[in-house]
Each structure stands twice: as structure tokens, then as C-alpha cells.
Design goal:
The protein is mostly helical and 203 residues long. It has helices at 11-35, 38-45, 49-55, 59-79, 87-104, 106-117, 124-147, 156-172, 174-180, 185-201. It has 2 domains: 11-57, Orthogonal Bundle (Arc Repressor Mutant, subunit A), CATH 1.10.10; 66-201, Tetracycline Repressor, domain 2, CATH 1.10.357. Helix 1 (11-35) crosses helix 2 and helix 6 (106-117) crosses helix 8 (156-172). The N and C termini lie far apart (56 Å).
Amino acid sequence: MPDGTSKKPSRIQMRNRSLILDAALDVFSAHGYRGATLDQIADAAGLSKPNILYYFSGKEEIHVTLLNQLMETWLDPLVEMDASGDPMTELLGYVQRKLDMSRDLPRESRLFAGEILQGAPRMLPHLRADLKPLFNEKCAIIQTWMDEGKLAQVDPRHLVFSIWATTQHYADFDSQVRVLLDDEPHGSAARFLDQMYRSLLAP
């Protein structure tokens, strides 16, 4: 949007920005950053390409805006892990929250995965400044629970990685999952992951 004014965006401007970002989320999650074009985003949003460029300078600004919005949402489930809670309950709750995100936010999961697969060129500052300190803090909490005998001893870092892998799989590989399973995947996934992590972590 043009600089030089502090005027509050109109309802139409807010609606159009929202339309553009929602359409771009569809396009980026389907085609990746490199495969996505402004023409595709304009078509998906039902707006002209010049209209898109009124609100955003180009494809990269749209992509960065989506990633910035996503980061807080992506960190929230880990933030909620409570050091004062019951360790097994906290970890299994984290697994369930991540699985719920795969069900409810599949486009966002694929957007995030696509960025990471490219080497995180636009998200690396967030990973260093936001994710790494939080990751270190929560891994330290998990290690304390293990040292206190409340959980089995495993590497907390790889435990968290495995939770990410096993839950986000259901979003990132949704087409394959739905071909291979005859039922709705998230219910059976929740039961399996609960059993697997409960068995792994039982002291």
C-alpha cells in the first residue's frame, strides 16, 4: 500500500488485503514460492494484477507477510507447554495440539514446509530469533522432567523433531494419507500417536 499516510485502511481495503492473503495461501501451499505467480494469486482472489500490486509490492512481500502471520500461530502450541504441569500430560497435549493444527491449518503447514525445504530464505531470522530460544527453553524443561525420573530418558531435541514430523505429516502428505486410509485420518492418528509417545516416555 502506498506510504506517506497514517489514514486507517477502509473496510474495502482491509477486505481486499484479506482476500489477497487468503488466495496467496492457497497458491503458495499448492505450488510453492517458486511455482506461484502474481497472476495465479490475482485469479484466486478475483482481483486484477494491478489491484494486487496496489496492496503489495510483489510476490515476495505477500509471501513474507503470510510467513510473519504464521510464525506466532506456529509457536503457540510449544509456548503452551507448562513446566509446572504433569510432564506426560503436557507432552501428549503438545502432540494433540500439533495434530489439530495439521487438521485445521493444512495450507499453513505446507507453506511453512515449503519455506523450510528451500532453506528458509525469508524465515531464517524468525527461526533464529523466535523459534530457537523457545526450542531451547522447552527442551531444557523436558530434560529436567527426565532427570527427575518423571519421563524416560530420550534426547529432548529429537523428541520434539519427531513430534513435528509425525503430526505435520498429516497435513503435508494429506493426499497420500487419504488414499491409504479408509477412515478420517486424524482420529486414528491421535490414538496411535498417544499410544506411541506414552509408551516411549513412560518412566
